[in-house]
Design brief:
The complex is a heterotrimer.
Chain A: H1 6-30, H2 34-54, H3 59-87, H4 92-104
Helix pairs in contact in A: 1-2, 2-3
Chain B: H1 3-23, H2 28-54, E1 60-67, E2 70-75, H3 78-105, H4 110-129, H5 133-151, H6 157-189, H7 206-219, H8 230-234, H9 240-249, H10 251-274, H11 276-299, H12 303-322, H13 327-358, H14 369-372, H15 374-388, H16 394-408, H17 412-438, H18 454-466, H19 469-485
Antiparallel strand pairs in B: 1-2
Helix pairs in contact in B: 1-2, 1-4, 2-3, 3-4, 3-9, 3-13, 3-18, 4-5, 4-9, 4-10, 5-6, 5-10, 6-7, 7-10, 7-11, 9-10, 9-13, 10-12, 10-13, 11-12, 11-17, 12-13, 12-17, 13-15, 13-16, 13-18, 13-19, 15-17, 15-18, 16-17
Chain C: H1 2-11, H2 13-30, H3 34-61, H4 77-100, H5 109-128, H6 132-151, H7 157-187, H8 203-220, H9 229-236, H10 239-264, H11 271-295, H12 299-319, H13 323-350, H14 362-365, H15 367-381, H16 387-401, H17 405-431, H18 450-464, H19 467-480
Helix pairs in contact in C: 2-3, 2-5, 3-4, 3-5, 4-5, 4-10, 4-13, 4-18, 4-19, 5-6, 5-10, 6-7, 6-10, 7-8, 7-9, 8-10, 8-11, 9-12, 10-12, 10-13, 11-12, 11-17, 12-13, 12-16, 12-17, 13-15, 13-16, 13-18, 13-19, 15-17, 15-18, 16-17, 16-18
Classes of the chains: A mainly alpha, B mainly alpha, C mainly alpha.
Chain lengths: 109, 489, 485
């Protein structure tokens, strides 16, 4: 039976979690929908927690990462709901356009 | 009153004058009285300070220590005392003229105009008495900020654009060149104090010395060494009294004094010898620009524009003298600053008077005005003669010393450039003054039924008399200024 | 009795710096009266400020050592000075909140105040936390509270800004965690104070870790090019949130960067990477921040872009890696906080429109706010005899001292750009007349203008007589960076 080298496995885990972080950061910064961004935020924190674990950092770091991820998700969800209520939309370009218009006409604070 | 108190008073009084004028903005009589009386007080204190310095008094006022080993300090020294006397004396004439001008032209916000002119005087005095580079830098910055409202005074679009250009040139050069040069000097010499003989001599390597000199000369953009002269042209948007203040009493003279102090007290002869290449290049630039400015003035019909170029040429002559690295050059520079202040103040006040009472601002329109405004145009002619360098007026002694000192250091071409600039100055001022005095009187000269008031004419005539001052005092001034180029033991 | 209480408080100052604002936040949420809430917030921040200033007098100026030992929280060196700046800025923001809370509904006010206190607590916690996890948690607490505060009040555009903060914050948090994990893997240390003496087994991964942490903090400080969240929030959120984010949040993140750099730069095999990253970020911050400030048409955005440019100068000074550079960066941090409060507080107190033309003639219509804004703008410009000039001068001097001329050049370029945007601000305040003047709001809570005025006065007073400040900055930088190789 073929046995996998634990060092290699660790490296693969690190690489995979790093890739997850990078991909989700890209999503986070480029997605045009606020919901997708929020999902990206949750995934990036999850990826970071996995990477921290793969890098053999103390377990408390992983717990901290999960806690912070939850906090981001909760707060982000609240803001997402209020965005939907306020604009009737969660597409950020459309929201930006509305804000820019409002600012142009001097209604924004 | 002792010398220290006098020094403090001469710096504070113009600020108090500004506050007083603003507080007494109405009625106009009270405002003008406050302005002129406080100018009298400044002139009195300036004379006292000059007298104390002539008797060997020394004083140093430290206001703060904002950086380690660097004070915000002012020191009584001959150059500062000379400039204070000029600012005080000519400032009194200018105050009287300004009062007359704002009454004649119904200039808007006259109290604000007067207040900022007083503040620029305070800043120019601070430059003159600055005890170190840092204080001079602060004073220059304050001078820029105080002069900016004068350029923007009219409040229209053109004045706004001119003000922004004015501010951009003076602040950018100050922050971008003067500040790093100052830090560099501090890094090399460990001090920023002004000392006769300089602080950099023998300490800076040739590359650093050359770069530093260039940075200082261009960093003090108030001296208007091209291409930093654009503020001078931009400031033409200011009302006539403000122009007189900036060109003849505060900003331009302060720039010349700044370059003088850097050459004499930061570099000294040995420091400038280390920066030989930059010194020569800057002398070429100043000399050539002096001729070009005088030539450009020929092409200008607007009198204020023409006078701006005339003043630029004269200021560059003062810079040239300061860079000659010898005591004779420094003396020539000091004489040139004196001549510039006396002649430019008279010319600008005269052109202001003419504009106020006849509405004429073009050189061609001056023909025959001497018949109806003899005192004003006589003053204009005398000041023009001084600008040109005709004996026995102030400008003549300055030019003579400049030519002699240039020749004595082997820069015959610099002497030729000074001579050429004098000829070109004659070409753009001489015919104008001659036409004004000899032409036929225009039939409807005055736009005001009562002509020029005493307040507008007397300062011009007295200013013209001031251009004769060096005839009497040149030798005494040489003795008075000797400590400036005598290195401390 | 009081003496004993004070001694106990002094002994536990780091802990109290974190817990006092948090406790106050809890009380604020419970208390029903708006003015009582405000008084609680002010009292908490005043107590924090007293604690840290007292510790500064005793430890930094008297030269006494406050070794952290094994404690997870301690005041030392750069962190100490940073905490002092933050506590004072927090106090000023909290006092100014008296008037600024009018942007919120009556039910939102306690929450806004509580979140503001959490922001202060979080950044102060990051200043005293000794290990990377503590710093991470403190930063995230502050950030999440900032997001909540940004989303409250203001117009609906504030929600858009808050969503951007969520994105930036999550990316930044992930980077911090990754960086910390890589650094721990490479050096084997968790406490930052052990970094300078650490045996570095994997220099490359450690360097990457350090870079990630710095970039993460740069995103939280709103430094270009990681500042996409900043303009959206600054232009559209409430005055209180803008003031808190710009003067406590941005300054806090920069102070944490300074503190982390002070531990990482002396570490063998890491120093060069740290200085390179800081310098690159500093240059980018100066260039992009300055350009954006010049082009800004909204006064709050202008102020935060200017802050980003000033933050770039802070990083450039840190990137010098010398004690003089650290001291200069601390001075610049103080200048940034004070100028930010003067400008943004002045805008908030006058209640003028946020478009730049809303400032036209404001100097005449609201002379007190106008004067504060003038002083703030002069300090941003680096005008002599202001705190901004002092910071710039020391930074340029430090750069020249280590022959990094181009770094000095970048700082001077920032000053030149500042002359343009701050000059524009001053021109509008005093040299233009408004075509349609906005009526100035005369708030009954006149006390709230005091911190703005005091900050303006401090900018001038400390610019004229900075010897005490210089001693503090020097002592703080020497406690850590003085041992740098």
């Amino acid at each position: 039976m073929m046995s996998l080298d634990p060092a290699l496995l660790a490296k693969v885990a690190i690489a995979a979690s790093m890739a997850l972080v990078v991909l989700s950061v890209v999503t986070l910064l480029t997605a045009s929908n606020a919901g997708k961004r929020l999902a990206g935020a949750a995934v990036v924190m999850l990826g970071a927690a996995l990477a921290v674990s793969a890098l053999r950092a103390p377990q408390i770091f992983v717990s901290a990462a999960v806690a912070v991820a939850l906090a981001y998700a909760a707060l982000g969800a609240l803001i997402l709901i209020r965005l939907q209520e306020a604009y009737g939309d969660t597409e950020l370009p459309a929201i930006d356009a509305v804000d820019d218009d409002a600012e142009g006409s001097g209604r924004a604070p | 009153m002792n010398a220290e108190l006098g020094l403090l008073a001469i710096l504070v009084l113009p600020v108090a004058q500004a506050a007083l004028v603003l507080a007494c903005a109405r009625p106009p009589g009270l405002r003008d009285a406050a302005y002129i009386l406080s100018a009298c007080a400044i002139a009195g204190v300036a004379f006292f300070v000059f007298n104390e310095t002539a008797h060997g008094a020394q004083a140093r006022v430290v206001l703060a220590r904002p950086l380690p080993n660097v004070d915000l300090a002012f020191a009584l020294e001959p150059l500062g005392a000379m400039v204070a006397l000029l600012i005080g004396g000519l400032g009194l004439l200018h105050a009287i003229h300004s009062a007359g001008f704002v009454r004649a032209t119904h200039e808007k916000s006259p109290a604000r105009l007067m207040a900022f002119m007083a503040l620029t005087s305070a800043c120019a005095l601070a430059v003159a008495f600055s005890a170190n580079l840092f204080t001079m830098f602060v004073a220059m910055q304050a001078l820029t900020l105080a002069a900016f409202p004068l350029v923007e005074h009219r409040g229209d679009e053109a004045a706004g654009a001119a003000g922004r250009l004015f501010l951009a040139v003076l602040l950018a050069s100050s922050i971008g060149l003067f500040l790093p040069a100052m830090v560099w000097t501090y890094a090399i010499a460990g001090v920023l104090d002004f000392r006769p003989g300089g602080v950099l001599g023998g300490l800076a390597d040739p590359v650093s010395a050359n770069l530093l000199l260039v940075m200082f000369v261009f960093g003090i953009a108030a001296a208007a060494v091209p291409p930093m002269h654009r503020w001078l042209m931009a400031s033409r948007e200011a009302p006539s009294p403000a122009l007189t203040s900036m060109y003849a009493l505060t900003v331009l003279p302060a720039g010349c004094i700044g370059v003088f102090k850097v050459a004499a007290f930061v570099f000294g002869a040995s420091g400038l010898a280390d920066a030989r290449l930059a010194t020569q290049a800057l002398i070429v630039l100043a000399g050539a620009s002096m001729c070009v400015a005088a030539l450009v003035a020929l092409s200008k019909q607007d009198v204020h524009e023409r006078l701006a170029y005339t003043c630029l040429a004269q200021a560059l002559a003062a810079v040239l003298g300061a860079l000659l690295t010898i005591p004779a050059g420094l003396f020539a520079s000091a004489l040139q600053i004196t001549a510039l202040m006396c002649s430019a103040a008279t010319l600008l006040m005269a052109s202001g008077t003419i504009a106020a009472v006849t509405g004429r601002t073009q050189a061609g329109a001056y023909a025959g005005l001497g018949r109806v405004m003899p005192w004003t145009l006589a003053g204009f002619a005398l000041a023009s003669a001084s600008m040109v360098g005709m004996p026995p007026f102030a400008g003549a002694w300055a030019k003579l010393w400049l030519i002699a000192s240039s020749s004595s250091v082997g820069l015959v071409w610099a002497a030729v450039l000074v001579g050429l600039a004098a000829i070109l100055t004659f070409a753009h001022l001489g015919p104008m003054a001659a036409n004004a005095l000899s032409g036929r009187a225009p039939p409807d000269a005055f736009i005001r039924p009562d002509g020029a008031s005493f307040l507008l004419v007397a300062p011009v005539a007295l200013g013209a008399v001031a251009t004769l001052s060096l005839l009497v005092f040149a030798s005494a001034l040489s003795e008075f200024l000797k400590p400036v180029w005598t290195p401390m033991p | 009795m009081i003496g004993e209480v004070l001694e106990t408080a002094r002994a536990h100052a780091p802990l109290l710096l974190v817990t006092t604002p948090l406790l106050a936040a809890a009380f604020v949420l419970l208390a029903p009266i708006s003015r009582l809430n405000w008084a609680i917030g002010v009292a908490a921040m005043a107590w924090s400020a007293w604690l840290v200033l007292d510790a500064t007098a005793r430890l930094l100026l008297a030269g006494a050592s406050a070794g952290a030992g094994a404690s997870p929280l301690a005041l030392e060196g750069i962190g100490h000075a940073g905490a002092a700046v933050l506590a004072c800025a927090g106090l000023a923001v909290m006092v100014a909140a008296g008037a600024n809370l009018r942007d919120f509904g009556s039910r939102e006010r306690p929450l806004a105040l509580a979140l503001g206190l959490c922001v202060c607590s979080g950044w102060q916690g990051a200043m005293v936390a000794q290990d990377l996890l503590g710093v991470f948690l403190a930063c995230e607490t502050a950030w999440l509270a900032s997001v909540g505060l940004a989303a409250l009040g203001g117009e609906r555009g504030a929600l858009n800004g808050a969503m951007r903060m969520i994105s930036a914050g999550a990316a930044s948090a992930a980077m911090f965690l990754l960086g910390a994990a890589l650094l721990m893997r490479g050096t084997g240390v968790v406490r930052m104070s052990e970094l300078p003496l650490a045996q570095i087994e994997a220099p490359i991964s450690s360097a990457v870790g350090v870079a990630l942490i710095i970039v993460s903090l740069a995103a939280k400080a709103g430094l270009a090019p990681f500042h996409a969240w900043l303009p959206a929030v600054a232009g559209r959120t409430s005055a209180f949130a803008a003031l808190t984010l710009a003067c406590v949040g941005v300054v806090g993140a920069l102070a944490v960067m300074a503190r982390f750099a002070a531990y990482a730069i002396p570490a063998p095999a890491l120093g060069e990477s740290v200085t390179n990253v800081l310098t690159a970020l500093g240059v980018a911050g100066v260039a992009i921040g300055s350009l954006q400030a010049i082009g800004a048409a909204n006064v709050r955005r202008l102020a935060v872009y200017a802050g980003a440019a000033q933050g770039g100068c802070v990083l450039l000074a840190l990137g010098l890696g010398s004690p003089a550079g650290f001291a200069a960066s601390l001075l610049q941090l103080g200048a940034l906080a004070a100028a930010g409060i003067a400008v943004l507080g002045g805008v908030a107190a006058s209640g003028c429109k946020l478009n730049l033309d809303g400032l036209d003639g404001l100097g005449r219509r609201a002379p007190v706010s106008g004067a504060a804004m003038l002083v703030g703008a002069l300090s941003l410009m680096g005008a002599p005899l202001t705190l901004g000039f002092l910071g710039r001068w020391r930074a340029i001097e430090a750069a020249v001292g280590v022959d990094l001329w181009w770094s000095a050049g970048a700082i001077i370029a920032a000053s030149l750009a500042a002359a343009i945007y701050a000059g524009r601000l001053i021109e509008r305040l005093y040299f233009r007349r408004s075509a349609t003047p906005t009526p100035i709001q005369h708030d009954p809570w006149r006390i709230s203008i005091f911190p703005v005025l005091i900050c303006g006065a401090l900018v001038l007073a400390l610019g004229v007589e900075p010897s005490m400040l210089l001693r503090v900055a020097q002592a703080a930088s020497h406690q850590i960076a003085g041992d740098a190789p």
